[in-house]
Automatic annotation (TrEMBL):
InterPro entries: PGGT1B-like, Prenyltrans, Terpenoid_cyclase/PrenylTrfase. Belongs to the protein prenyltransferase subunit beta family. This is Prenyltransferase alpha-alpha toroid domain-containing protein. GO terms for cellular component: protein farnesyltransferase complex. It comes from Aegilops tauschii subsp. strangulata. Residues 25-46 have a biased composition (Low complexity). Keywords: Metal-binding, Prenyltransferase, Repeat, Transferase, Zinc. GO terms for molecular function: metal ion binding; protein farnesyltransferase activity. Its cofactor is Zn(2+). Residues 98-235 form the Prenyltransferase alpha-alpha toroid domain. The lineage of its organism: Eukaryota, Viridiplantae, Streptophyta, Embryophyta, Tracheophyta. PANTHER family: GERANYLGERANYL TRANSFERASE TYPE BETA SUBUNIT, PROTEIN FARNESYLTRANSFERASE SUBUNIT BETA. Residues 1-55 are annotated as: Disordered. It holds the Pfam family Prenyltrans.
Amino acid sequence: SSHMVRLSLRSSRPHGDRAPSRGTQPSGGPPASAAPMDSSSQSPPAGGDPSEDGAAAELPRLTVTQVEQMKVEARVADIYRVLFDAAPNAKSVMLELWRDQHVEYLTKGLRHLAPSFHVLDANRPWLCYWMVHGLAVLDETLDDDLENDIVDFLSRCQDKHGGYGGGPGQLPHLATSYAAVNTLVTIGSERALSSIKRDNLYKFMLLMKDKSGAFRMHDGGEIDVRACYTAISVSFL
């Protein structure tokens, strides 16, 4: 929402006013595995109805992403079950925000990410936004050198004709333009704000506008509600 994207790292509270950072982490193991296959669950012997075999063959197979999503949902459901069954005094401890650990994790991520993040190479402004915005929500400030590094990196993601790509030299895209602009607005310094080439960004968004009034995510890209939202949000900011 608009009130969140306008949080600024430049209006943080004193470090002495931090909330408690230690607590008991909510428990909840991984989702229960399926029961071993027994004789009742094995495939029927050959010679059954061919139409049933054909129907089974036509059932859609789950993608890796769908399977991972189901695992996450099961894990979250386990955590909620533990929380709902806990005593009131235990709930207050389980829901305590581990502020210092989050700050450390986000700040470290802005300096270096593990190799597993390479799959998000086309989403690097989003990584900046998620981490910078998370720190802003926690009322944490960045040191000047780290701020300048972020501004310099996003400037390299900015296309010379307008808009921000997912990384240096990548195709400008409304989603990553949204992430980059929100990151720079959240930082809020004169250097961050002045790094946005406003005229070129405006031209890029006009090029993305379809004659129907909707927007495309990128040149030749899809038209959807995300495109409209990100274009209007960036324009407002």
